[in-house]
What we know:
Blueprint: H1 9-12, H2 14-23, E1 46-49, E2 73-75, E3 85-90, E4 103-112, E5 117-125, E6 144-152, E7 158-166, E8 173-179, E9 185-191, E10 202-210, E11 219-224, E12 227-233, E13 243-250, E14 261-271, E15 278-279, E16 286-287
Antiparallel strand pairs: 1-14, 2-3, 3-14, 4-13, 5-10, 5-14, 6-7, 6-13, 7-8, 8-9, 10-11, 11-12, 15-16
Amino acid sequence: MANDQAHDTRTTVAEDRVAAAVSLSVAGVVATPAQGALTALERRFTSIRNFEGTVGLKATGADAFDGDQGQSTFTTEQVYSGTTAGRCFLRATDHHGGFGNWGGRFDFPNKLLQGDELFIRWRMYYPAGFKHYADQATTPGDRIKFMRVKSVTASGGNAGLLDLYWDRKNDLVQYKTIKEISPNQWKNVSTKAEFPHLFDQWVTYNVHYIASAVEGEGRGRFWRNGELMNDIQMQTLSSATDTLDWIYLFTYWNGDVPQAQHCYTDDWKITSDRNETVIDPVTGFPWIGV
Length: 290
Ligand SMILES: [Ca+2]
């Protein structure tokens, strides 16, 4: 099929990957509106968070995190768009998780149900020396929870999170995705060789989820800087009656903090409405775009 990455040598042949990513910004490569709509009309929403705010104050409000922002502030140190961005800060003393100190939460205006879909595009900046892993001496093997979609049961209980992870420092895999359930459903997204961490530059991520408790119907697609990392058939809900309710950026360091450090975030777009997306000209998949 035309939309199958396996048949698109622009993204499956290693030497074509750089050219494919570059081609997205070349004039003449025009993305067209995405076709079809999965999310029911009454559950379509779009949320923009550009982290415009008063420098030094907590990064919370209608243009930033809705809560759990902890130590996150508005800053001009690094800015992707507008005049400020969000600065996420982690203390060396934030051991054993430090929930609520790291990153923050974006609420959805409404719950998303099985069969609905979710598109997310955001920017991150990691200064040189930033460590994407837990302290290996005290908590060997711990992966870091990066971008997390909260799942809730019909009665309001915790149904586990749908997470994008940074994998272990010494693992060949770089990004992993998991649907927390019993047992957890793990999938590899990309390797360190293909997608090494980037520093002192803005990095753009795109994710597309289709919500389903059926692995063959659920979907996770992941891009970095316009390059498709993976297109995965995956279970994105634990139960067909669960919902997707909000997003965490970090919020929890999965093990001991290796050092005091910070990174930046800006220019979030979160939508369940395919009308807010276009077709990625390289893969043929719908996305928000770079
Ligand atoms: Ca901004």
